[in-house]
Amino acid sequence: MANWPRGPGGRSFLAPSDRIWTLAFVFPYVAVLLAFVLVPLGYGLRMGSSPALYAALWSDPIYTRTLVNTLVFVGLSVNVKMVLALLLSGFFMRRRRWIKGLLVVFMLPWVMSAIPAFISFHWMLVSEQGFINSFLRQVVGVEGPLWLSNPRLALGANIIAYIWKWLPFWTLVLLAARMAIPPDIYEAAEIDGAGGLRRFLDITLPLIANVFFVSTLLSVIWTVGDFTIVFLVSGGGPFHLTEVVATLANRYWFDYGRPDLGVAAVISVLPLLIPIVVMLMRRVHARGVQL
Fold first, then answer.
1. CB 148 within 8 A of CB 234
2. Of the four, 42, 91, 166, 288, which is 20 to 30 A from 103 by CA?
């Protein structure tokens, strides 16, 4: 360990030249933090501090519908995705070449750029001339519904697009957690006569439960602020019936010229996010979970 120079009282100190270099390295990070994080955050909190803004939000029927949409979108998307990721991670644990090749193909949605992928989703579902309805009409011989004109179908399309995009990533995370379990534990359980389901319930699930829980919390935080999927797939339509908080805040800001309402809409979900962040940090510090 390096022996740093020490001043009176045994306290270490830096030479003047070392202080200059320290400031030269630290100052850019502090400047970026102030310019792009703390100042905008403080300005936004000040902009959305008026109670009249939240009274205006609650009087807007679109906002109340948007809160419900956000809860449904986040709840269904995250839970379905994480359960599927847990199951698929077990499938990809099998040591076969064709499964390894399938894993590469399975990861492609996550690797693809999000914007063209979700625009493609939109054009496949839009009107009677979309790819899905054209396929149903020409191959199956049935007329498909107007997917993006029905609020429930449009919200379902957003959820499916979200799962399609993010399922590979979280499957890979849980697959890595499974691969970290020592094989000796499974071998001992198999010798004791434990079947596949019993090994999953008694060994796999308890050992990856912390990673699964932390991954779910992270996914909830990221999904609440997700703007791209809803904006590009359903566009918040029909008639703003599939808006989520992120897209509605964007409309308040740019379409309606009310940036203060947009900021207030974003701040209104903090009571939901702050407990999740606290739970996440406590779980990480208590268990020492590493992703």
1. yes
2. 288
Judge whether 5 lies within some domain. no
Written as one string, the DSSP assignment of 70-90 is: HHHHHHHHHHHHHHHHHHHHH
Indicate the number of domains in the chain: 2
Q: Are 123 and 131 in contact (CB under 8 A)?
A: yes
* pLDDT, tens digit, 9 for 90 and up, residues 61-118: 999 999 999 999 999 999 999 999 999 999 999 888 899 899 999 999 999 999 999 9
Two tokens, residue 97: 């070449």
User: How far is Cα 278 from Cα 257, in angstroms, rounded to an integer?
Assistant: 34
Taken in order 272, 278, 284, 287, is the CA torsion positive or negative?
negative
Contact 8, 221 (CB under 8 A): no
**Local structure of 6: helix, strand or coil:** strand
Phi, psi of 6, rounded to the nearest 5 degrees: -125, 140
Alpha-carbon distance 220 to 74, whole Å?
A: 7
**CATH (domain of 128):** 1.10.3720.10
Tokens representing residue 150 in the block:
């029905």
pTM score, whole prediction = 0.84
CA 232 to chain centre: 16
Partners of residue 6 on adjacent β-strands? 12
Residue 220: C-alpha distances to residues 36, 42, 105 (Å): 24, 24, 26
Query: For residue 128, how far is the Cα from the chain centroid?
Result: 32
Q: Record the tokens describing residue 283, joined without a space.
A: 């779980």
Full domain range(s) for residue 28: 12-47
143 shares its domain with 58: yes
Q: Are residues 238 and 193 both part of a single domain?
A: yes
Query: In 3-state terms, what secondary structure has residue 234?
Result: coil
Residue-wise pLDDT for 229-243, tens only, equals 999 999 998 999 999
